[in-house]
User: What shape does this take?
Amino acid sequence: MSVPDERQKEFKAPRGTRDILPAEIEPWRELERVCRSVMEAAGYLEIRTPIFEHTELFQRGIGETTDIVEKEMYTFLDRAGRSITLRPEGTASVVRSYLEHKMYALPQPIKVYYIGRMYRYERPQAGRYREFRQFGAEAIGAQDPAIDAELIDVFVEILSRMGLKDLEVHVNSIGCPECRPKYRDAIREGLEPVMGRLCEDCLRRLTRNPLRILDCKNPECRDLTKNVANIFDHLCDECRDHFQSFSRFLDISGIHYVVDPRIVRGLDYYTKTVFEVISRDLGAQDAVGGGGRYDGLVEECGGSPTPGAGFAAGMDRIIQLMTARKAPDEGVSGPDVFIAALGDDARLIAFKAAIDLRRAGVSADIDHMGRSLRAQMKFADRGKFRYVVILGEDEIAANEATIREMATGAQTRVSFDGLVEALIGRCLRS
Ligand code: HAM
Assistant: This one.
């Protein structure tokens, strides 16, 4: 072990990032398993895109006036002087991949899902990190409002299989390039007389992106926008029909939801349906995830007009909700076998037995710290191994090993030759 040195710098993970330690990993793995299983049952296949992309993809895809592009991207020049950005979200990359690999030539829609890390330079707080994890799904190539409802169903199914309840599904429509400009004007008109009372951010939004004023968290802005124009009075026929049909599909799924005109989303690519899943238990950062339809994005990224829809969920927030609800499961059994051995000959036998057990699918470990036999037993007990094999002086002299079942303390002696078989029998049978 090294002696602490005063000159030695203590390294910490960068602000807004964190380690997920072995003791914390199980809920993450469980969430990933459930995510894969639910997504695949609905016909979504996994896609893995790069962690970084050309900056322009996000500028074009997410929108120049969004918070993400304006102030939250991790952007740098690579050694050849190209502008590169760590992905702040997954949708733009999936669309880029769809076009690059000519997936439009395949039977539509293309349905994919992803699980991965995203990067946003935000002010870290509970539930908000600079490196965070999302799972998400994208369905590209279909206008069908059933897709919008299917995405919500998949999302809610994953959350309910993870044991999360008390979640609220909020849905809305934000129209399309045909009807949204008129709605924007109506908001501007409605807020002009009270402009002076809007917060600084909303004042800026009034000219650039007035819809975003609707989801401002500032209580005074919320109050001022209470009676502002309603999107449903401004939707064009196509958007209205789409929303009605989407609602029918969502109704038949049995999912409880509310229509919430304040859901406008923070990314520019949305058209028609938008939605968020919210948990009151999360505090200020209450969105478990969100998504919607983006019928103009493929074209924006250089393809021909192609509809699409998707969602992404914040895995860090889901884990936070899960761990708040569930005490760690003490009953979980640990690895299968620890082989405690004393002396060089015994260690050789232990090493070989451990390898043979692992090859047969039984998890096995030995001591690497030169501990006494007693200390090895203590280590195995703390590590919650199911069986400990003892190779002490007595055993070696008799060409035998002692197998102890840790839960009961029951011990049996077996010959070296029969040791691996005996353990495989015990561990793989139960
Ligand atoms: P988003 O709303 O920006 O949408 O992010 C989705 C979810 O990711 C959020 O609801 C939140 O749970 C989580 N999240 C976002 N930022 C952070 C952060 N800094 N720390 C922890 N969690 C965070 C999108 O990303 C869209 N790409 C969703 C989508 C897919 N729309 C269509 N397809």
The longest strand covers residues 110-119.
